[in-house]
Amino acid sequence: MEDIDLAKQILKQYHQEHLWNFWEELTEEEKHSLVSQILSIDFAQILQLYNHSKIDEVISPHDLSALPYTDKEELSSSEINSFEKIGNAAISKGKVAMVTLAGGQGTRLGYKGPKGTFELDLKPKKSLFEIICDNLKEINDTMQTTIPWYIMTSIYNDEATKLFFQQKNYFGYPKDAIFFFSQSELPIIDTNGNLVLEETFKIKEASNGNGDVFSALAKAGYLSSMERQGIEWVFFAGIDNVLLKGVDPLLLGLTIQNGHLTASKTLRKENPDDKDWIFASKKGKPSIVDCCYLTEEMKTQIDASTGHDCFRDINVLSHLFHISALEQLAKDTLPYHRAFKKNTFVNEEGMKQVPEKPNTFKFENFIFDAFAFFPSIQLLRIKREDEFAPIKDFNGPYNPEVATILYEKVKLHREHVDEEKD
Ligand code: UTP
Asked: Which residues contact 349 (CB under 8 A, 6 or more apart)?
């Protein structure tokens, strides 16, 4: 009873009484579920985010300067070998872990089920999770180790993801080296500042972005267990790039050698007018920024001393952090970004409505905002044809068919290189 009164009071305080509209029609179980959800939501936070996010950040081109990067193509094979040696030493001593960011909803792909369970049309079929696992197994075999593999899920796919791994017998990876943890979510909000209902008894929430990974790791107790195990470096990568080497001895070796706490792989933007956000130093801090803040000249600017592009490197969601950086990030708060998205909702009559246009704001924090907490970053520019084939949707350039062709091509090439090494 007390909880019901408290829930009603909260809704009144934050002008969200419409969420109670169907109370009289709900079953006891539904009432209980709605009340506990209301009590679990931080209404002050979400409304503050909504109000604050109406003010867009203003970045002047003067705030931006180039971030140095290492171009893999410019390294000699002996340089590559010596950096890889440093990275491999850390891997074989058990100092490295991998985190896969798999909490997204994959709305663009529109595939039913966790995106990591999406299968490429290979013989035999292979899921995105299995492809990541193959990479890890390969390094484990070479380095005679077992890299602990942490997988971030969300409320929407946690159960289904775990079940999939069980059904696939963990793809032969040591089960006790795989750790699942779930990220948090936040309510979505309409253009009038109202939270919306997903069901008559349920407020619509969505995962709060891949930047939640630091606090989610800490909450699950995995940051402290990593420390106890002697993990010093943690790689982070998304779920959908079928060519990515998530754990990369070269990136690790470069980062250790050059004394950075964070690192990231980059790719040269093919067309300077493409909309992809770019790496830059923003007010002196390593960042990834919207290219709309660049002037026309900046888009193609070259650093005269290095001959490198200044503002043309894009993010491929392949990052590396030192464990001390993760501890700091678990305590810090990353900024939230606002996205305007289409979301089905329950209308005043209790009917589900599928909007034709974006109708609601979603708030997410991005893992790359973590870079700004550190003075420097190691960037490694890789080649598109070697390591970039993401799957985003069925109709755009990053579709499953293209990714499958590129995967088969690169796999054949990598096998050929390995044979030559033997
Ligand atoms: P995307 O930006 O591609 O988002 O995520 P998405 O949710 O997968 O797909 P769309 O935009 O709805 O179509 C990049 C990576 O970050 C993870 C995703 O799982 C993917 O690996 N991610 C995204 C999370 O782990 N949590 C989130 O809240 C969002």
From this structure: none
Instruction: Specify whether the CB–CB gap between 30 and 200 falls below 8 A.
Output: yes
Distance 104 CA to ligand 1 centre (A): 4
Residues with Cβ within 6 A of ligand 1?
101-108, 115, 152, 183, 207-210, 238-240, 317, 364
Q: pLDDT digit string (tens) for 275-303?
A: 999 999 999 999 999 999 999 999 999 99
Given a contact cutoff of 8 angstroms between Cβ atoms, the answer to whether 212 and 99 are in contact is no
Pair 294, 278: CB distance under 8 Å: yes
Interval 364-389: pLDDT, tens: 999 999 999 999 999 999 999 999 99
The number of CA neighbours under 13 Å toward the Cβ of 46 is 27
Domain ranges, ordered by start, for the chain: 64-421
**Tokens 């974006």 label which residue?**
358
CA of 239, closest atom in ligand 1: 21
* 64-421: CATH, from 3.40.50.10900, 3.90.1210.10, 3.40.50.410, 3.90.550.10: 3.90.550.10
